[in-house]
């Protein structure tokens, strides 16, 4: 899980090559009452390399919104922008322990579902006053894990109806709901606190085996409109990337 925020610590992620399982084969014959032995059994298929079916971090980075997309006064924060490059990392699923709910306020919040993909790209844009941020990330997963991530978001909201805010001492209220019109499926989480001037909107949208995740505090609507708009932009870019790969 990659957690970072202008107000939160960074956990660096090493990009590890994915170790591919060796191809196995089996052979055996059987005979009964002098019947001819069976032909040689077919070798089991080698697991497909993620590179053959999934985008690398370098490719996912191209689908993120460019600097020209963001409002005037916003600039990329290089300390919170990274990707897995041309390597893949092992896909992992963590135990279903109670999530650290405060991490909903950090980039990489999608990792609270407990599933890490094989590649990712993320970047963070902050305004001049460093009070408003727009964060974007794309994670690619093997098999049905992307759909499992989306299912896990509702579980995170159930486990985190609220959490203490270390800055104000108050409680952050957490609400979530499925969202129509973004990718194959989408889910939106809203964070509010009476002590804040504006809340935070988190949007996740699945596009095939990838999940787009956005954090927004921009605007006077808890970041809802700008968060959905940024997600839609990335979803469209990711769709174009998929067609180019196909």
From TrEMBL:
Residues 27-52 have a biased composition (Low complexity). It comes from Streptomyces sp. 900105245. Keywords: Signal. This is PknH-like extracellular domain-containing protein. It comes from the Bacteria. Residues 27-53 are annotated as: Disordered. The keyword Signal applies. Residues 1-21 form the signal peptide.
């Amino acid at each position: 899980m990659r957690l970072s925020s202008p107000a939160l610590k960074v956990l660096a992620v090493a990009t590890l090559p994915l170790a591919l399982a060796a191809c196995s084969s089996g052979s055996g014959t059987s005979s009964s009452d002098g019947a001819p032995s069976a032909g040689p059994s077919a070798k089991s298929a080698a697991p497909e390399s993620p590179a053959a079916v999934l985008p690398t971090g370098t490719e996912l980075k191209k689908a993120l919104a460019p600097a020209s997309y963001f409002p005037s006064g916003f600039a990329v924060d290089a300390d919170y922008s990274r990707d897995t490059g041309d390597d893949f990392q092992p896909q992992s699923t963590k135990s279903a322990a109670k999530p650290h709910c405060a991490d909903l306020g950090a980039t990489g919040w999608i990792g609270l579902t407990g599933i890490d993909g094989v590649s990712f790209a993320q970047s963070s844009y902050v305004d001049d006053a460093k009070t408003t941020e727009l964060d974007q990330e794309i994670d690619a997963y093997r098999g049905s894990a992307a759909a499992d991530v989306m299912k896990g978001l509702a579980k995170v909201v159930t486990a985190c109806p609220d959490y203490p805010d270390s800055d104000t001492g108050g409680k952050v209220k957490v609400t979530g709901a499925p969202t129509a019109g973004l990718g194959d499926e989408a889910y939106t989480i809203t964070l509010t606190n009476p002590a804040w001037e504006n809340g935070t909107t988190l949007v996740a949208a699945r596009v095939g085996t990838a999940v787009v995740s956005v954090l927004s505090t921009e605007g006077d609507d808890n970041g809802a409109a700008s968060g959905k708009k940024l997600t839609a932009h990335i979803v469209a870019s990711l769709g174009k990337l998929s067609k180019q790969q196909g």
